[in-house]
Amino acid sequence: MSLRSALAVALAVVLTGCSSEPERTEAPISAALESQETGVKILLVGIDGATFAVLDPLLANGELPTFGRLIEQGARAQLLSDRPMKSPALWTTVSTGRDRKQHGVESFTSMVEGSDVPVLANATMRRALTVWDMLGAAGRSVGVVGWWATWPAEPVRGWLVSDRMTRSRWSEWSDGVKQDGLTYPAELADELLPLIVDPLDPPMDEVRKIIDLDASDEAEFRGATRPIRAHGLSVLKFALSTQLTYERITDHMLAKGQPEFAAIFLIANDAVSHNFWHYHQPDRFEGVDPRRLARLAPVVSNVYRRNDDYLASLLGRVDDSTVTIVISDHGFRASGKLPSTGDRKRLRGAFTEEFSEDEDGLEVVTVGQSGIHHPEGIFIASGGPIVAGSSTEATLIDLAPTLLALMGLPVPEDLPGRVLTEIVDPAFLERFPIRTVPSYERLIDRDALRAGADNENDESTLEMLRSLGYIQ
Ligand SMILES: [Zn+2]
Q: How far apart are CA 243 and CA 229, in angstroms?
């Protein structure tokens, strides 16, 4: 937290104290944000579109040892999504504990004042506090990588790498790549730039872990200069490069020290599931090309295998007191509709000239989504006080209260979700009983947090807050 944002918190408290709502007796902020030291650190891994429908058969084959270990030693549940299943809205529901009407990030793009084209979902649309805002205000360190709608990066107590740090398919499809506000603190961007994977030149060894490209596919893959909506190879190229970038950045940041709350978002699964599902579940479609099927059947499963490998390396970077939570915003199912040959006019300029000259090549460019969102996502939690073999009924709004309770913060009563107590050791809940506070929204002035994007000495800020009695 910066000095200015600390002042903003202080100011918000003063204003709250002077508020003319006599009926409401607000607890003083010192008591409201008084947190218990549970010793729990959180690692939250968001995998867009992950589903047990793919995980379970692979787990049964012993193919996903890391997912398997987390489930065996922890809790697993379906995580019920919220319709319509637009990922920016859903991931913001996870981070705020509120539905889209409340938090304001409603879809991939929105019309905003001052622009006559739709604007890609971003942090300025979010009207509610995130869990990392709340944790930061209680003095906990946080680190966030690639989470939907976090650009421009807002001040946090720690670091935040926004979802525009890399050229994602969504920013390519929308309003392009932005240069400012990539990270908090701003100087971090320079340090991380060398870690960015160029989507026009992705590491082919990583690509081949996902997909077995024949010569024609490889030419098409290499020739794509931008992601083409519903065109599998180009979308994979950009989404995988995005994920690899955020993995490398997460590894880099964790090597410098694990924040008490860390969150990372992985996108490749969604891109692959949309575009290659007809090879994963060919019996749900009519007319899947058997020759391509023989080669591409494992593509969807390969992303799960790849994510399992990354999870294994990630778990090696966090300490033993960490509760690891792996979630998705929704699952997937077959659309029943095969992709079809694309409109070549629409694709003009989307490939390098070298590839465009190959008329035969362009004829086989196909677009269309064979996989579509399904409301059952995944919830896996393991470590610390999470009970092995436990289960629960969870929805996206339950994440925020559960994270806060595990880290010993009071749970705001104005959040609609609940703490998933069924998965938590009763002895832990006895030792750290769940406490509540009416709301955090009036305790933290987010507008001032945004405006305070400076980088002044954290310790003196905290000292000031302590001396004012706002935190312990
Ligand atoms: Zn999707």
A: 18
